[in-house]
Each structure stands twice: as C-alpha cells, then as structure tokens.
Design goal:
The complex is a heterotrimer of chains A (159), B (288) and C (747). By secondary structure, chain A is of the alpha+beta class. Chain A contains 5 helices and 5 strands, in the order ββαβββαααα. Chain B has a domain of 106 residues: Enolase-like, domain 1 (2-Layer Sandwich), CATH 3.30.390.50. The chains are: A alpha+beta (159), B alpha+beta (288), C alpha+beta (747). Chains A and B meet through strand 4 and helix 3 of A and helix 2 and helix 6 of B.
C-alpha cells in the first residue's frame, strides 16, 4: 500500500503530505494537516459539513481524494478570517445566533462565502437553494439565512 | 489500491484492460468515493481521467453541436450561458444532481456510468439525442446515450472501454427541451420519477419530439409512443392526455423506500405534462 | 411580549454574542473527532448485517494477524453477571449470544490507522444462525411474534400478555362511561408514527484510554460526561472515580447523546492494546443503524366532546417499540398527550414492546410528539366536524394553575392560556389561504426537568468570575449562564467565563437533557454566585469592622446597608478580589442539588401548507411557534430552540422515517435517504416568546428546548386536512401516502 506524495496550497500556504490514495481530501486535511475545522457529518456528500473550495470551486472534501489535491489551491474555514479580522459572514453568524451546536457552521460559512463571491445580492430563495446541501439540525435555518443575507448586505454596502 | 493518472484515453483504456481485480474510473468521483467509503465498492485500481487533456472543455463542434469533456462539472455546465441557451433541459438535469458542493465535482459521464435509473442528467441527454464517444481497445466509436445503461448499476461498457467525450447534436431552430424530476424534498434527493422532453415546433405544431423517463424502469427509457403523442399536435389537451398515458404505459418501476410503483407511474405522467409545456414554451421562444 | 423591552434586569433578556462564538465560526472549536493523542490507535466496529441471529462463532484470527492491528475485542472481553439496565447497556454495546438488530456491534478492532482498522473488521468471520425477526410494533405485539428476549418483562406486565410486551402502563381517573355519555360527539381513531433519528450532524466520536491499572481517560462528544463515566464503568466493571471523562464540544445531541454506544469499546480496546489511546468515530450509516433513534408508535385515541367544544372524556392506548430493549417512552407519551386539557374522565394504557431495532434513546421531548399527534389530530377533526374554532376549543379546555393534570399532579404556574391567547392574536392567523392550502394548529407540552446539578464559581484575582458547569453547551447555554451570573454579581457579561468541565472537577451532573441546562445549571450558578456575594460582603464587613448583615451587594460592590451601618465608600468586586489573599483566601461559591421548582412549558404552533393535488407534495408556506419560556435569558437562543424544534417536527411529520426491509435491514442509513429538511424546504420560522415567569427559578426560567418538537406533527396533519379534506393518520405524510389517500378519496 504505497502512499503518494502530494504538494498543494492550503489557505495560501504550500503544504505537503503523504496520502494513501483511498483517503479523501477531508481525511488529509484533518488527519495529515491538522485542519480539523472541516467536519465529517456523512461521508457521502449529503451534509456539507466538509465544504471547502478547490481552485475557487465549492466542493465537499469528502468527495475528493487527497491525491487529487496535487497542485490545487484549497481554502478551508481556517483561512476565512483575515488574521484577527473575521469575515463579515463569521461576524454575522455570531451576532445573529446563527449557530447552536456549531458543527455545521464551518461548512455553511465556506459555502455562503462561495455564494456571495458569485452572487453578492442573492434572494432568500437563492440562499436557501445554494445552502440546501448544508444540513443544520439545530437552527431550522432561519437565523442562518438571516445572517447570510445581512452579511451580503453589509458587504455590498462596504464595497 | 493502485492509483493512476493517465495522460490519454488510450492509456486509460490500456490500464483498465490490463488491471486485475476491481477497476474504477474516476471523473468527478461523487459516486465512486461514496461507494469506497461505505465499503460496497473497494477498487483494486482507480484510474483518474481528469489529467487527460481536453477533459475539462465545453466546445462547439463544427456542425454546431457540442462536445463536453468528461471531467466538466455540473457547476461549469451551469455557468455556460451558450450551452444553456441551446439545451436548457440537459443542463437543468445535471444541475439537479446533488448539492452545490456535489455540483462542483459531479459530471455527466459519471452520472451516466453510475448506471442509476434515477440519474437526473441522463433523461435530458437521451431526449437530446446525445451520444458518447468511447475509447476502447479496438479504437474509438460513438454510441447513443440510451444504449449505455444496462440496468441498475450496470452499463454496456466492456473492459477497456472508457467514455472520452459527450456529443450533443446541434439544437437548430424553434426547438426546446426541459427536465423535471419529483423528489419529496426540494433538493438533496434522488428522483422518484423524472421526465425529459425535447421538441421542435413548426409554428404552433410540434414537428419533432423525444421523450425520456427516469426512475420508473431498470434504466432511463426513451418513450417513442409518448413522442408520437406530441408530434403533429399543438400540445392541446388531447395530446397531453395521450402523452401522459403513453408515459405511464412505459413505466415499469419498483416499490422501494423512495416511493411505490403506483406513485412513480402516476407522477411520471404528471411530470411529462409539466415538462412538455415548458419545452413547448421554450421552443416557441417564450420566456421560461 | 419579548423580554427585550422590559428593563427589569440589566443583562438578562439581552442578546450578547455567545462566548464560544469565535471558536465556532473559525473552525477552532474541538468536537469529538477533532483531537489526537500520542500513540493513538484507530478503532472500527464490526456490525451485524442481520436483524436477528444467533452468533455461533466469531473468528478474529485473520484480523489479529493483519499488520498494524493492536487489539480485537468481542463480548468475551467484557465482565459477566450484569443485570437490569446495566446488562441492557452492555448487551447493546456489544452483542452476546444474539445479534438483536441490523447494526448491532459484534466485534471491534484497534489498529495503527483507520484504513487498517476497517480492513481488519472485514477479515473477521462470523457464523450466524439467522432467526425470524420483527421490526413493526403492531407485528411485534402479536402473540406469535418472534421472541426478542425471554423474561424481559417487568412486574408491571400482567400474566398472559404477548411475549414482547416488557412494560405495561394503566392509569386514569373519573368515569369513562359517564364522560362519553355526556358528549355530543365521540370519535375514535388509530394513528401510527414511524421511528425517527435525532439527526445531529456530528457522528459519535470518542478517544478512550484505559490502563491495566483500571485508570482511564476519555474525550467524547456527549450531552453528559457523568453518564458516560457511570455507564462505561458499569459495562466494563471499572471504578468510576478512576475514569475521567472530558466532554468535547458537541455537534448536536437532542437526547441521542445521553447514553453509550462505542465508548466502552474504545476503553476495552485501549486496555487490550497496552493502554494506547483508541479513537473511534462512527460513520453516518453506523449512527443511523446503531445509535438510539426514537420509538415507533401505534396509537388508539377516543375522545368525547360536547357540541360547544367541551371535552368530556378521553382514552389513549399507545403501543411503542423502542428496539430490542425496554425503554420506549410510552409512559411519557401518555403523560404528555392530554396534558394541555382539563378533562374529568381520562384513561391511559401503554405497552412497551420489543422489536429487532436499535435501542431507542431520548429524542427531544421523548414520547410527547407521538401522543400529541394522535390527540391533537383527533381534537382537530372533531372541531371540524362540529364546526368549532380549534383555538377556541383549546382555550375553553386549557389547563390553568391549580388544575390537576391529566396524568395526576397539580399544575403550578403555567402559561398555556397566555400562549393560546397570544397565538390567536398573531397576524399569521389572518393571512387568507388560497386553493389547495390549509391551516393547522396544535398544542404541545413538556414537563421540563431538574436533575442532579453541581456548579462551582470562583472569583478571579481581578474581580472577574469563572463558572465551572457540568452540562455541555449544545445551543448557547454558556451565554445564558454567563448572563445570569453576571446579572447576579453585578459585573459585565464579558467578565464571566463559563467552562464546561470534566468529571474530576465537580460533583455528579446529569446531562444537558430534559430542557434543564438553563433552568438547573442556571439556578445552581445563580445560587453559587449568591454564596460568593455573601462571602464578599463578609470580607467587606471585616474590613470595615461592621456586622456582616449590615453589608449589602449593589451593582457589583459591597456597601453599608444604610446610614446606620456606617459611612464607607462601596468596595467593588475588583477591590475585594485584589485583596482576597490577605483577607481570608480564595473566594468562590458552590451549589449542589437537584434544584426544585421546575416549570412546565406549553406551546402552540400554527402552520399553513399547500398540497400539490397531482403529486401529494406538501409545502410549508408559513410557520409560527408560540411558547412559554418563563423568562428568556438570551432571547435569540430561545427563538433558536423554538425554530429548531419546529423543523425537526416538520421533518418527522413529512419525510423522516426508519424504513426497514423485509430482511429486517435498515433501508435508508444515509442522509440522502433519511430525509431531514434542507434549507430550501422551509420558510422562515416565526416565533413569539410568551413569558409567564416560573416562580421556581431566580430569573423565571422554564425549559425551552423540547416542547417545540411536539406540535408540528399534528399541526401539519391538521393543515393537510384543511388543504385536502384528508385525515392523515400515519406519519410521515409523504407525497406517496398523501397522493394515495387523495386517489382513494376520489374513488
């Protein structure tokens, strides 16, 4: 069972790891790179807790092999804040009480950020459909949707 | 498990033919990885096709049709305005596969080769009369999409066969297509029934039509009787009734956790009616 | 009505950022699977593919021979001789003579990597003798059903009951015959609900370490670290004080993380592997197959009503299966089902039935949603038949303070009438409905709970406060406890840190369950803060040389209680803390009790739906939750509980269910097929917090977590009847079921 050497860029830093080809990108982020902010809720791409972007595209990191990360640029929740300065989405999630247990939160934040980069002025329906792959069992989504809409509004105002 | 990243389809074909044990090709990986995770499929050889040149492309063919690379994700299809203008039904079928995140990886070819009768992108391709280019040990050949699925989880592909491109014909004038599926949830669900229709009009009259249904038989199915019900009509009530009856007659579904056979059959007819109206409107250039 | 407008308190009722918010939006918060330890091994579990089978032989030799495998355990590695619930827990942790359900653990492996552990599990060979199985409650209660376990019935079960009935309940009051005779309309209906799962997004995960000396450590996602300690100790025959359990951040629980599953396996593997720590993380399919979903229910209800809407008598007979072990919440379902109503004549009968399914665990207001589905559905149907307003009927029969509850006790201060009156006035009830749309209302009830509670609070050198609590923070309880402590001490919210601590740091605490954390831990923390205040007043009194009773605590400072007490400037908490080393040492407050004064909570929900007559699809158009919180300490998290409970109930009503095949295997053990609501399925969930303060809590808190899951099941059924005329009596009300009912009604 030979492992494969992978070089990739995570949150702006070049990193290397040895991956068994059966390991997912999520396994590699969590177990080889210590980036445990991305969560495994299902392992089947149905919950979104492991959301990251790869070359700017939102994906479930449980549905990509670690070895496929070779030469890619990966962004995770750990790279979302700019130093001490939270991304507006992160701030709005806390202000709106848009998290209860917080387990789905990193994935939802990563997904919502990808949405706002593509569509800075989404409707409530657009937010709901974009985030349909991010299960939250605590909140009933209400406060999550409000936080995303509010962050979008603030970001548009600030732009 | 051996992991390969060939740089040509010929190499991929050769690798697959020579491999022992269980072999899987990796395009988007959204089915293969799930199967590996659950232990239902533990490949001995995994061949990643995405590094082969051209697999990421969406290109116009000289005849005005389209060639879609095998690694093009649903998200890329959904961003391609020109393709959507030609074949909205094909794209909306693919866009129903999984979440936004899954869209970032999932591919048309993967959806097809997974062999699910409920694959959302396949009825649209069948209705569109799309075909796949297969690179095999004996060379390259082209096969209609509807000839690929052989039953749940099975395809007609032979050892060494690898799909190297998807070919969609030129759309032409006064034509439209559409796809809808039924799921209990709005998203994140497997089709309980699905229907795609592609048609062309001459004035108000339907001159050409293809109707395909999903999740109501062991494979996605082309329904010529349903198309015949549409052709020559102006999508009047009688034509719709005949369409619905023909679609339901073509259904041969199973009872399972996702729905009863009776429900699937009933709803396939409802979808056919709704989809025909959308495709007809699109063909006539009405905003949809 | 929202608390924000009442300036009675400085902090209670405000909405500050939660203390753990930053960690949770940056990915830093550490959940069950997020930590590693030096020398760590990975565990994996072999599970039965059969619903019911005798285990003839387990051959682990190939697994043990695999390079990297450090330990394999089976039931043979566990102590014997356990009885009662301890035996049940052990048997559920790992099968003994029989596999009792699809997913039942058979063996476990620890290896140097997760992949090796999984491979080793596949190398274990088990010889089974497959036995007949039963998974449906109505089948399981038949006299000739496959017997899950001989001799499992307790003393409550009368002679001659079918073999899988393990508990029997019968209670009531009044004269049923006379009650039904007084009614103008008597209706009787049968209902069924399917098993659902709590659906927390974080799979169970633990990291356990146990040495040959019996000393152990565990990091685990749980609602209750002491429960984990006590149950693991019992199952493994350990000395409880030698096992130190630290709770991770928890990714949802809803009752499902109040018990043990694979935690003892990690400890057993660790001990066998020479004390190396073993991490076990469940997959989603393991969570669905082999943790603790709720029970499924089959229920008959008979109700009498006069033509002006007075309830004269009600009879409820409920049958529930909670898996292969006793413990279906049939008693709770009976207690809660008629609780919102003042009825003279009531009869309750309940059966707890074994079936070949996983051992049920608590799920948010255990039992209450099923009972409410049956009772609230039938009451609604009777209102329609008698052309009565369902809100008026609920108000007319509503229980008030001093009334005897349907299940016996006398209600203290309760807010059902206030909830119903507030609901009736809400603008959602005035929105006109279109074609194929319907509106449904339903009430719900939960007792709320106290439980063993131990809290310690210490003043820091700089006058800030740290609070050690034993109830894991699932939905913002750190914030609410910090608010109450800061309010009591008279300091800033930011000057209080609430720590959820390990079992070595406090006396026994029950888990965060029963809607108890803000009530019980909050009450204990407030009393602990008061104890610290008393000590600080004493220090000030000593300093001033006046009597301790002549000092009072005002706005975070000690001051003389009046002009007669002396003329000293106030001594702030900062001043007192700075000198505490010289004035008698550390200052802290403790409180240990089972806090009394629990306040029950009622709610009322109103839902508008639209049903697609061609597909049977139900869409939620509008949703309103009104509930008595007692007092909302942090209103945002109260609203969050209302909204989250409502949406879990929506899932239960419409799509969620455990589907077992003819082979007894769970057909839908992934989120793709276990259909929990997604964001695009829902509208905003409107909330209204009613506040009828609970006199048993220093700030008036009731519990708010659980009541909210109860009304959605009947409310949606009632709305569907409004939209279609159909009475759906079997959950979930999937498009398949609704369309079939529509077709049947047209024939």
């Amino acid at each position: 069972m030979s492992k494969i050497h992978v070089t990739t860029v995570v949150n702006g830093d070049e990193v290397e790891f040895l991956a068994d080809p059966r390991e997912t990108l999520l396994d590699c982020l969590r177990d080889h790179l210590g980036l445990t902010g991305s969560k495994e809720g299902c392992g089947t791409g149905d919950c979104g807790a492991c959301s990251v972007t790869v070359d700017g595209v939102l994906i479930s990191s449980c549905l990509m092999l670690g070895v496929e990360a070779q030469g890619k640029r990966i962004e995770t929740i750990e790279g979302m804040a700019n130093g001490e300065e939270l991304h507006p989405l992160q701030r709005k999630f806390v202000e709106h009480a848009a998290l209860q247990c917080g387990f789905c939160t990193p994935g939802i934040l990563v997904a919502a950020k990808a949405l706002l980069e593509k569509n800075p002025d989404p409707t409530e329906t657009e937010v709901r459909y974009w985030l349909a792959g991010n299960l939250c069992r605590c909140t009933g989504y209400d406060k999550i949707i409000r936080a995303v809409m509010d962050a979008a509004s603030e970001m548009r105002g600030a732009a | 498990m051996d992991f390969h990243t060939p740089s040509s389809f010929e190499d991929a074909s050769k690798l697959a033919a020579e491999a022992t044990g269980l072999t899987r090709f990796l395009a988007g990986g959204t089915d293969v990885l799930v199967q590996m995770r659950s232990g239902t499929v533990l490949p001995d050889t995994l061949i990643d096709l995405k590094l082969i040149p051209g697999t990421q492309g969406i290109t116009r063919t000289p005849d005005g049709g389209w060639r879609i690379g095998i690694a093009v994700s649903g998200a890329r299809l959904g961003d391609h305005a020109e393709l959507i203008a030609d074949w909205p039904g094909v794209v909306e079928g693919m866009e129903l596969v999984g979440s936004t995140q899954v869209q970032g990886r999932a591919t048309l070819v993967g959806n097809l080769c997974n062999g699910s009768p409920a694959a959302d992108s396949v009825p649209g391709l069948v209705a569109a009369q799309a075909s796949v280019e297969i690179t095999g040990l004996t060379g390259v050949r082209t096969v209609p999409v509807e000839d690929i699925p052989a039953g749940p989880g099975k395809t007609t592909l032979q050892p060494g066969d690898v799909i190297s491109g998807i070919l969609i014909p030129p759309r032409g004038e006064h034509a439209g297509d559409a796809y809808q599926r039924f799921t209990p949830r709005t998203e994140m669900d497997i089709a309980v029934a699905g229907c795609a229709i592609s048609l062309r009009v001459d004035g108000d009259t339907i001159s050409e039509a293809r109707v395909a249904v999903g999740a109501v038989a062991p494979t996605v199915r082309l329904v010529p009787d349903a198309a015949a019900a549409l052709i020559g009509s102006t999508l009047d009530d009688a034509a719709i009734d005949a369409l619905v009856a023909a679609v339901r007659a073509a259904c041969n579904p199973i009872d399972d956790k996702r729905g009863t056979a009776e429900f699937r059959t009933e709803v396939a007819g409802v979808l056919a009616k709704r989809v025909a109206k959308i495709a007809y409107g699109r063909a006539k250039g009405e905003a949809q | 009505m929202p608390k924000d407008d009442i300036k009675e308190f400085r902090l209670v009722g405000t909405r500050p950022n939660r203390p753990d918010g930053l960690d949770k939006v940056t990915g830093r918060a550490r959940y069950g699977a997020d930590i590693t330890a030096p020398g760590m091994l990975w565990g994996a579990v072999l599970r039965s593919p059969h619903a019911h089978a005798k285990i003839l032989k387990i051959d682990t030799s190939k697994a043990e021979a695999l390079s990297g495998v450090k330990a394999v355990v089976t039931r043979a590695d566990f102590p014997t001789g356990l009885t009662g619930e301890e035996w049940n827990l052990q048997e559920n942790t790992m099968a003994g003579e029989k596999a009792l359900y699809d997913g039942h653990a058979i063996a476990a492996v620890a290896a140097t990597s997760s992949l090796i552990a999984q491979e080793a599990v596949r190398l274990i060979k088990v010889d089974y003798e497959v036995l007949p199985h039963v998974t449906d409650v109505d089948d399981a209660i038949k006299p000739d059903a496959p017997v899950i376990r001989e001799g499992a019935a307790d003393a409550s079960v009368p002679e001659g009951m079918p073999p899988n009935v393990v508990k029997y309940f019968e209670f009531g009051r009044g004269d049923m015959e006379a009650g039904f005779k007084d009614a103008d309309l008597v209706m009787e209906r049968s209902f069924k609900t399917e098993a659902t799962h709590q659906g927390y997004i974080e799979p169970h995960a633990c990291l356990g370490q146990l040495g040959a000396d019996g000393k152990g450590e565990m990091w685990v996602c749980t609602q209750g670290q002491w429960f984990i300690r006590q149950m693991c100790s019992a199952v493994l025959g350990l000395n409880a004080a030698q096992l130190r359990v630290t709770p991770s951040e928890i990714g949802g629980g809803f009752g499902g993380k109040t018990t043990i599953f694979m935690e003892p396996l990690s400890l057993a593997l660790s001990q066998k592997a020479g004390g190396r720590p073993v991490k076990i993380v469940m997959s989603r399919s393991e969570v669905l197959r082999a943790t603790g979903p709720t029970a499924s229910a089959s229920m008959d209800v008979k109700i009498g009503m006069t033509k002006d809407g007075k309830l004269t008598a009600a009879r409820a007979e409920f049958r529930m299966q909670g898996g292969a072990f006793p413990g279906a919440p049939v008693d709770m379902a009976l207690y809660c089902s008629l609780a919102p109503y003042k009825i003279e004549n009531v009869e309750h009968i309940g059966y707890d039935v074994l079936a070949n399914r996983p051992k049920c665990a608590a799920y948010r207001a255990p039992g209450s949603p099923m009972g409410a589905f049956a009772v609230e559905s039938l009451i609604d149907e009777m209102c329609r038949k008698l052309d009565l307003d369902p809100m008026e009927v609920r108000l007319k029969n509503a229980v008030r303070e001093g009334d005897q509850a349907s299940y016996g006790p006398t209600f203290g201060s309760i807010g059902l009438v206030e909830v119903l009156e507030a609901t009736a006035k809400h603008p959602n009830l005035a929105v006109p409905l279109g074609p194929n749309q319907g509106r449904g209302v339903a009430s719900g009830y939960w007792f709320n709970h106290n439980g063993e509670t131990s809290v310690s609070m210490a003043i820091s050198e700089d006058g800030t406060a740290q609070v050690s609590v034993g109830t894991p923070d699932i939905g913002g309880s750190r914030a609410s406890i910090a608010l109450m402590v800061a309010e009591t001490l008279g300091i800033a919210y930011e000057d209080v840190r609430v720590n959820v601590v390990e079992t070595g740091a406090l006396g026994v605490n029950e888990p965060t369950h029963g809607s108890r954390a803000t009530f019980a831990t909050g009450k204990a923390a407030t009393i602990a803060a008061r104890a610290a205040i008393k000590e600080m007043c004493r220090r000030a009194a000593n300093e001033w040389g006046i009597d301790e009773d002549a000092v009072e605590w005002v706005e975070g400072a000690a001051q003389p209680a009046g002009p007669n007490a002396g003329n000293y400037p106030p001594m702030s908490i900062k001043d007192i803390a700075k000198n505490m080393g010289a004035t008698g040492g550390p200052i802290s407050g403790h409180h240990e009790s089972v806090p009394d004064g629990v306040g029950a909570s009622f709610g009322c929900h109103v839902v508008d739906v639209e049903v697609d007559p061609e597909t049977g699809l139900t869409k939620i158009l509008r949703y309103l939750v009104v509930q008595d919180a007692g007092r909302a300490i942090h209103p945002s998290y109260v609203e969050g509980q209302y909204q989250g409970g409502a949406v879990q109930g929506i899932g239960w009503a419409l799509n969620e269910e455990y589907v077992y095949g003819k082979d007894g295997r769970l057909q839908n053990p992934i989120f793709l097929d276990y259909r929990m609501p997604v964001a695009s399925d829902l509208p905003m969930i409107d909330t209204m917090i009613v506040e009828v303060p609970n006199p048993g809590h220093p700030f008036g808190v009731r519990g708010v977590g659980e009541t909210g899951i109860t009304p959605p099941l009947p409310a949606i059924a009632n709305a569907i009847q409004g939209a279609t005329g159909l009475r759906m009596s079997h959950l979930p009300m999937t498009p398949t079921k609704v369309l079939a009912a529509l077709k049947a009604s047209q024939e």
